[in-house]
Write a structure and sequence with these properties.
CATH superfamily of the domain at 32-90: Plant lipid-transfer and hydrophobic proteins
Signal peptide: 1-19
Strand order of the largest sheet: 1-2
InterPro entries: Bifun_inhib/LTP/seed_sf (IPR036312), Bifunc_inhib/LTP/seed_store (IPR016140), nsLTP2 (IPR033872)
Distance between the termini: 32 Å
Oligomer: single chain
Shape: globular
CATH class of the domain at 32-90: Mainly Alpha
Strand content: under 5%
GO molecular function, one term: lipid binding
Pfam family, one: Tryp_alpha_amyl
Protein name: Protease inhibitor/seed storage/lipid transfer protein family protein
Number of helices: 6
Largest sheet: 2 strands, antiparallel
Order of helices and strands: HEEHHHHH
Mean pLDDT: 80
Low-confidence stretches: 19-27
Amino acid sequence: MKFMTLMIITFVIVIMSSSILIKAEEAQSCVPTDLMPCLPAMTTGGQPAKDCCDKLIEQKSCLCGYIKNPLYSMFVSSPLARKVLEACNIPYPSC
């Protein structure tokens, strides 16, 4: 329970304090805060909301950038995040 709380707090702090926008290859802006609807599913393993899947689909091209960024990699690469991607029918990217 303490670990999960720490993960949530860390995620929120990193997302909210980051003013860096990761640029995707397609000149699309990748905005990590747009993925906030995914936070509950990525931290508890629950079923992702439709908003979460919609945002992940919109930012599918951004996932490699998130994986390579040390600020976000632990959230995108975690086993629960992989389950969220799977539930949203988004293959885990091979970067």
